[in-house]
Design goal:
- The chain is built from 14 helices and no strands.
- By secondary structure, the protein is mainly alpha-helical.
- The protein has two domains: about 110 residues, Tetratricopeptide repeat domain (Serine Threonine Protein Phosphatase 5, Tetratricopeptide repeat, Alpha Horseshoe), CATH 1.25.40.10; about 80 residues, Alpha Horseshoe (Serine Threonine Protein Phosphatase 5, Tetratricopeptide repeat), CATH 1.25.40.10.
Length: about 260
Amino acid sequence: MSTHPAARRAVIAALVAGAMVLAGCGGAQAKREAAGLDPEGSPADIYVNMAAAYYQRGQLDSALDRGLRALEEDKRNADAHYVLAIVYQRLGKRVEAERHFEEALRLDPDNPEYLNARGTILCTQGRYDAAIEQFDAAAANRLYATPEVALMNASDCSRRAGRGTEAERYLREALSRNANYPPALLAMARLNFDRGDYPSARQYMGRYGRVGRASPDALLLAHRIEAKLGNAAAAKALGDALRRQYPDAPEVMEL
């Protein structure tokens, strides 16, 4: 398998960001790294990096072609199997995606990025127990730089499975690992809002506002929190911001 650090950084940054459907991860810097080619990498590593870059641009045919070329160069390149798994999943080819995920994990069984991404796919298939097992394994890896991502995914997957207490436990654990993780802060604000604990919802929303993006769903939630707390001026300002910044967003219809 390939262990070249530049290839691994590129694949993990690009593909986990693209694969995550439960909780976003990966930032602008990671995506820039993913688009760069490492001239010192093996031919397989270079094709993997190219596949990651094409995937980020939405050019799935080219991403698939480069992933297959990577395997032609080195059939034991775990990153090549991983990139192909993500691309096949995006193309709706579940059998092929599963096969390459299994091979990537066989070659590199403790890779937390692979475990996290595979858990995400399993959860979208309704295989909740298997998915959460993957997230737990990823988060338990001490070398995983962002365990809060896997824990957030475990929370979302638990919620999908109707396990509210478990979902909250994972949320709190994610914030214990990274107190400024925006998706978990927003989820905690929404959880407290749904409970009717509007002061706590406002507190989490304030923390989110310092580190997160003013997305349509965040603005709508903040608007609703302030309205429930009787702060009409703040609620109006947040509603106006949602209309102004995202006039075509579905959330505008919910104001």
